[in-house]
Amino acid sequence: MANVNTATDARASYISRIYSAVRAASLLLPWLYYNRVAVSWPRVVDFFKALRESTDLPIGAVGFCWGGRREYCHQIHAPWVEVEVSIDVVTLCHGSETLNGKPLIDVGYTAHPSNLTLPTDIESVRLPLAIDQGTADFVLNMAGVDTIRGIFERKNAELEESKETPKFEIKTVDGAKHGFAVRCDRDNSEEAAQEQIAETHAVEWFGKWFARIGSTT
């Protein structure tokens, strides 16, 4: 990710940007091929179907960049179940994949999501979803953030009109670059603080929704 950030940084030298772009491409292109949606999505669906069948607890998905790439959990106090996939949590929050009429997850959280098709991907979201996005992210710019925020505000207003709890939120982290939630330099106090903002938001988001879902089951 450091190579990608350098390649897209207008302040870096021309040589540094070219070198970093070549280095990033040599790693990214094979990854994109082996983790393309046609390969990874069926694995994601099968995993969550098996998880849904195994428990009555609420299920949450956390994803970074391409989405669901790190951890999936039952409840906030339960052990984490670690998997490696390459599909967007936003897609899981569409709720279109079901098992016995129930969505495969109950709530999602993502930071610095990529590969979004706006506004379609966000318009299709039905399940609770929170997003953290850096203001210096080269993948999803602030115009995209404004698009998401506008859709979320409209959806939340419609829920409130129906006497339902708002389900969607997006927060920006000043100065944060792509990957800030999982690839920060811990020796850099600013980056460490940005990562902590995302972690705190995610924990609070799942705590809120797992408690709410648990009280209705």
Structure, explained:
The protein is α/β, with parallel strands linked by helices and 217 residues long. Helix content is 46%, strand content 15%. The chain contains 7 helices and 8 strands; from the N terminus they run αααβββαβββαβαβα. The chain has helices at 2-7, 14-34, 37-54, 89-92, 120-123, 142-161, 189-215, and strands at 60-64, 71-73, 80-82, 98-99, 102-103, 107-111, 129-134, 168-173. A 6-stranded mixed sheet has the order 3-2-1-6-7-8, with helices on both faces. The termini are far apart. Residues 68-87 have low confidence and may be disordered.
What would the keywords be for this entry?
7 helices; two-stranded antiparallel sheet; alpha/beta; 217 residues
Task: Please outline what is shown here.
By secondary structure, the chain is of the alpha/beta class. The chain is built from seven helices and eight strands.
Beta percentage is: 5-15%
Shape: globular
Q: Could you describe the largest sheet, including whether it forms a barrel?
A: 6 strands, mixed
List the secondary-structure elements in sequence, H or E. Answer: HHHEEEHEEEHEHEH
Q: Class by helix and strand content?
A: alpha/beta
Number of continuous helical runs: 7
State mean pLDDT (0 to 100 scale).
84
Report low-confidence residues grouped into runs of 5 or more.
68-87
Q: How far is it from the N-terminal to the C-terminal residue, by CA?
A: 41 Å
Question: What's the layout of helices and strands?
Answer:
Elements: H1 2-7, H2 14-34, H3 37-54, E1 60-64, E2 71-73, E3 80-82, H4 89-92, E4 98-99, E5 102-103, E6 107-111, H5 120-123, E7 129-134, H6 142-161, E8 168-173, H7 189-215
Parallel strand pairs: 1-6, 6-7, 7-8
Antiparallel strand pairs: 1-2, 2-3, 4-5
